[in-house]
Structure formats: C-alpha cells, structure tokens
Amino acid sequence: MLEETIAAIRPADARALAEARSHQDRLTKPPGALGVLEEVAVRLAGAARTSPPPMPEPAALAIFAADHGVHAQGVSPWPQEVTQQMVANFLAGGAVANAFAAQVGASVTVVDVGVAADLPPASGLMIKKVGYGTADLSLGPAMTEAQAVQALEAGISVARTLIADGARCLITGDMGIANTTASAALIAAFTGTDAAAVTGRGTGVDDSTHTLKIAVVRRALDANAAASTPLSTLAALGGFEHAAIAGFILGGAAARVPVILDGVIAGAAALAAHALSPSVADHCVAGHRSAEPGHAVALAHLGLRPLVDLELRLGEGTGGLLAHPLVCAAVRVMHDVATFDAAGVTEKPS
Amino acid sequence: MLEETIAAIRPADARALAEARSHQDRLTKPPGALGVLEEVAVRLAGAARTSPPPMPEPAALAIFAADHGVHAQGVSPWPQEVTQQMVANFLAGGAVANAFAAQVGASVTVVDVGVAADLPPASGLMIKKVGYGTADLSLGPAMTEAQAVQALEAGISVARTLIADGARCLITGDMGIANTTASAALIAAFTGTDAAAVTGRGTGVDDSTHTLKIAVVRRALDANAAASTPLSTLAALGGFEHAAIAGFILGGAAARVPVILDGVIAGAAALAAHALSPSVADHCVAGHRSAEPGHAVALAHLGLRPLVDLELRLGEGTGGLLAHPLVCAAVRVMHDVATFDAAGVTEKPS
User: Fold this and answer.
1) Which of A241, B2, B269, B278 lies in the 20 to 30 Å Cα band around B147?
2) What is the pLDDT of residue B46?
3) B227-257: pLDDT as tens digits
4) Nearest-CB residue to B96 (from A29, A94, A312)
C-alpha cells in the first residue's frame, strides 16, 4: 500500500499553475492584492492539475494519538495518561479541536495508532494500534521499520476512508504527551539542524526541563546515528502518530486532495513524507506557524509558508482548522470573482 | 445622534475581563496555548460585559463607498470611475469581498456615502450620500464639519440597522479610489507621524507616484494645520467613507456589538472614532495587517494586534472577513470547551 501510494503522487502540473496565475490576473482586483492567498490558490490548482482547483470542502480532521517511550526521560510536565484522557475529551466533543472543527464545519476522527492503553470502542474512534507507545528514542530506535510501515499505512488508510466518505480537504491533528520531543529529533535529523535550534518548550516546560529536553534529543540523534534512509530515520526517531500523519499526507497527495498541516508535529511528519516522496509538498498547505522553534525550520525545508501566526501551541489540529476557511476563501475567489471584462470594470493602465 | 452614541460607549468591564481570563485557565488546554485568540475572547468578554461573550455571529459587512477630490492630484493609477464600477460589481456579487463573505456567511451591504455619481437603486445598496466626492484635501478641508457629522451619523445609522436586523458582529469595508491617500493623512495627523512613514503604494503605484503621494499628504497636512479637534481633523483630511466607518465603529461599540476592522482605511477611521471616544478601541478587533505602512502605525496607536497577516492590499473588507472565523473560533472555545474537572483530564502540576 505504501509503495503504490508513493507511486501515485505527482508533482504540481505546470500548465494548471500557469492557467491559475493568468486567471488571478484577470480578476477584478489589483494584481497580487490577495497576497499569500493568491499563491495558495495557484498551488492548489497545480496539485489538482486543473484551474480553478476544486473547493477544498468539506474538510476532515484526523487526530492521530499515540504515546512515547521518551516520556520516561522527564521531557514533559504532563503525565502520560493525559493522552488517553484527551482522546476521551475529543470523543466527547469537549476539546478545543472540537470547537474549532464545529466552527469551520470539519468532521473529527480520532485514530489510536499507539496509545499506551486499550481504549473502549466509540463513535468517531478508529483503532489502528501499532503498539502501546513507542520505545524510548533516546536509547535506540523508537520503533522497528515494520512498525513504521504499519503506522504509515494506517495513515494512508485513514486518508482513503475519509476521502471515500466525501472529504475534499484533509487536516492533520495529533495527540501524544511528549511528542514535541520526537518532533524535534525528526526535524533535526531530516534538516541537519542542531538539536538546540529545533527543540522548544512544547505545551509549557521550564528552563531546566527545556535544557534536559535538548540533551535528550541529542542523545536520541547519537543513539540512532545509524539510521540513514527516510524510513529508518522515521522509525528511529518518530512517534507512531508522526508515521501515521506522514502516511495521511501521502494518502491525500496520492488522491490529489490537499492536506492542511497543523503545527510542529505535522511539520516533522511532513519532512518524513517529503523524504519518501518529494512531490508531496506540492499537495500541502501549512496551516499555521507554531510557537515551537523547530516548526519554522521544518516549513522552510518544505518551502511552505504558514497562513495563521497567532502563537498557538496546542496541537490537536487546531492551527490547521483555523487555516481552513482561509484556504477555502482563496479557492473561492477563483470560482466566484468576476473578471474585469465581465464586470465592466476599467483595468489599471499599465 | 452622534453625541448620544458616544455617551453610550463604555470601556471594557474589569469583572468580565477577569472572569474570562480565569475561565480560559480552567479549560482543557495548557494555559495560554491558544495564544492571541485567548486575548481576543477575553477582550470581547470585557466589551460585552459578560463572560463568555456572545458568539459574534451572524456578521454583517458594510462597504462604504465614496470618491475623493485628491484623486485630481494623480495619486492613483486607477480612474475615479472604478469606484462606481466596483459598487456595481459588489451589488452583482462579483467582487472578492462577495466571495469571502459567502465563505464566512456574512451579509454584504454597500453604502453610498459620497460616490461622484448618482447610483441606480439596487438591492443591498443604501444611499446615504453626503456629497459627490470630497474636496481636494491637499488644497484645504476635504469636507465641512457638518458634512463630517452627517457621514458619521450615516455610519451610526447603518450599524443600528444591521444590528436591528440581527447582526452580532460588524465588519468594516470600503471602496474609494485614492482613499489610501486620505488614510495616510489621517494617520499622520492623529498619531503625529511623518507623512513618509505612513504613506504607501495603495493598490499599486510606482516609485514616482509614491513620491508624489507623500508630497500630497504633506501639503494636505500643511493646508489643514488649523484643524485641532477630532472632528475638524476628520473633516479636513478624511473621506466620506472614513467618517462613515468611524460612525459605524461608534455605532457598534454603543450597542456592544464587536467591530472587526479591515485594513488601513478602517485603521484611519478607527483613529478618528478613538479620538472622539477612546473606549471604542475596547470594542474593536483588528482583522488583518495591511501591506500599507500606515496601518501598523494606526494599530499600534489603538493598541490592537492584527489576526491575519497575509500581505493583502485590497480593502473592501476582505481582511476583516477573513478574520471573522478566527474571532468566532476564539469565542466558541469559551462556550464549548470542557474544563479539566468536567472532562476528567489531569492538570499539569504547577
């Protein structure tokens, strides 16, 4: 499933890109007046291979939840149980992601890819468990390559299911106490950046924990220095949710359905997806810029510019959800707005 | 009507602000994890004098259209007729503002407060004409104080009508070829900033026109140096749409309905409203940061931080419309999200 998905991913279509740019310039607005949103619409046209691109509605958020062996190193002030407690909160509709999804009209699916407990079946919960949390990446590989493939394929399968159910935009979400540590390690490895430059305070750690966290990321990179392929790097340093999100991104791209990336966890996962299939970046929109320093490094490597920059540091898909109306607005312009000719508006003399 | 409106505007309620902050900290998310959006929700609670504040839906966009005598100075490459052509485009649903409004579910009302032509009656068009364009502000006052009051009261009246029709959020919009020149003059005067620092390229002028535009703003400030009160400054340097938008903001604030400001024209108008009634800023949300340099100066003076920063330079209310889902999401969190206690989620040990 992984190989077939990667084979189906195509880079942006040059003709659709050119058509979309030309269409933008005929619309009743000064050229370039929509700033970054014009480029978003053009990029989605390239990814969809048609201009205007289809409206990216309805959207589906998938929150991939998993636990992390590295939690034992004391990198987070939150107990590991919070992962499963927050899964219950998502399923009950009580989390911020639920409120944001309701606001923008997105569906919410929670996927257990590796929570360290058996979760009771529930509506809105997909069980795709690869393990009961990863191994401690600071001591060696977080997972085997076979587990990484299993998690990747879980993500592909979730993307396929949501698209078959009608989704025309996928939004990445995550839940996993300690997952900013794994994200920092992935970003450091895939971009060749020093651990200190990509390791942040997550959902709130003090100075001494931050120093510890950087040291743990360094140890993880040392302990896994043998990992040299995209898959082995992902397996060595990632969480199950990182691997699943990478698969989710690949699955969207293969189906030409755009994927809005949330924050630093999605950015780290997208680096893995990009390493497996570089064209995948053409199908991604960076939803927001997280307060985590590694996120900007990841986005720069992917060549993506975030749409929302409001100092969010929550995860769950919240930043991706907030970006969805902006992405829709960008595409709607190409469908609804009149051209100078059609509207009888005088063009600016050039 | 103006005096009574100003008298009704109250500053943020300290108790509602404190309640909203305390409520934010009990929700199932790390404290502060929603960044700027937490402060938006808290500010709206203060303005509404209750926590949580009412949902700012439905939203109503009012696009105030007018022409400008200063157009004769060659400050814009666009012919003046484009103002009325774009009004027709708004009414036909073909402009970017219409597409964005459709995306976010906002109504669109166009208000003629001073277009230099008689417009045919149309559904969605309110005629509140104060004149056929302003006088040239580079030669003397753009309008009389009586005209400024008339335009302010037109804006108040539009706010009252839209709120009576059910709007729970007002969004400012504007259309007026050459109105970034008047905006720069207003911002320079109300903030005491040099013309060169606040005069930008509007919807696209070349270097020589930009230099001319700065010189025109300087001449306008010199020619109107006698203006010393808020009202006389607005009359001397503003456009009819600036005065009407200032009234619209005052009208929203008086009714405790939040106002999302669009770009630099709204920022300039908000400075006038703020000079007339300083508490008005508590009721405003800065929708976006325009590419115009004067906008950041205006927002800093008002103490507002923009939500969207995507290099838009279109006007029409487009930046305000894009911010609306973000503002709704911020408030919805306070209504929908579970507390740690209620959700059974363990709090971070402090």
Assistant:
1) B278
2) 98
3) 999 999 999 999 999 999 999 999 999 999 9
4) A29
Instruction: Give the whole-angstrom CA distance, residue A326 versus residue A308.
Output: 9
* Predicted local distance difference test score (pLDDT) of residue A349: 63
Contact yes or no for B312 and A346 at CB 8 A? no
Cβ-nearest to A343 among B27, B92, B203: B92
Residue A231's Cα: distance from chain center in Å?
18
Q: What is the CA radius of gyration of chain A?
A: 20
Q: Is A101 exposed, middle or buried (0-12, 13-18, 19+ CB in 10 A)?
A: buried
Give chain B's largest Cα–Cα span. Answer: 68
Contact flag B322-A325 (C-beta cutoff 8 Å): yes
For chain A, the distance separating the N- and C-terminal CA atoms, rounded to the nearest angstrom, is 52
- Give whole-number Cα distances, A340 to A348, B34, B94, B312, in Å: 10, 41, 10, 19
CA distance A51 to A20: 5
Tell me which H or E stretch contains B261: strand B259-261
> Chain B contacts of A30, Cβ < 8 Å?
203-204, 313-314
Q: Which DSSP category does A162 fall into?
A: H
Radius of gyration of chain B (CA): 20
Least CB-CB distance to A33: which of B32, B85, B313? Answer: B313
By the 8 A CB rule, do A12 and A43 touch?
yes
B37 touches chain A (CB under 8 A): yes
Contacts of B121 (CB under 8 A, 6+ apart): B127
Whether B39 is catalytic is no
Cβ under 8 Å to A: B residues 216-255: none
What three-state secondary structure class fits A267? helix
CATH architecture of the domain formed by B2-54+333-343: Orthogonal Bundle (1.10)
Q: Which of B86, B325, B344 sits opposite A85 (nearest CB)?
A: B344
Q: Which CATH architecture has domain B59-327?
A: 3-Layer(aba) Sandwich (3.40)
Phi, psi of B304 (to 5 degrees): -110, 145
Q: Which of B304, B244, B260, B254 lies closest to B280, judged by CA?
A: B254
Selected residue of B63, B312, B316 to mutate for chain A interface (largest A Cβ count, 10 A): B312
Beta-carbon separation of A343 and B30 below 8 A: no
Whether the CB of A90 is below 8 Å from some CB of chain B: the reply is no
Q: What does residue B54 show for φ and ψ, rounded to 5 degrees? A: -60, 150
HSE, side-chain direction, 13 A CA sphere, residue B303: 11
- Kindly state whether A14 is in contact with chain B, defined as any CB-CB distance less than 8 angstroms: no
B199 in Cβ contact with B184 (< 8 Å): yes
A310 and B30 in contact by Cβ < 8 A?
Answer: no
The domains of chain B are located at: 2-54+333-343, 59-327
ipTM, two decimals: 0.94
pLDDT in tens, A299-322: 999 999 999 999 998 889 999 999
Is A204 within 8 Å of B326 when comparing Cβ atoms?
no
Residue B344 sits at the chain A interface (C-beta within 8 Å): yes
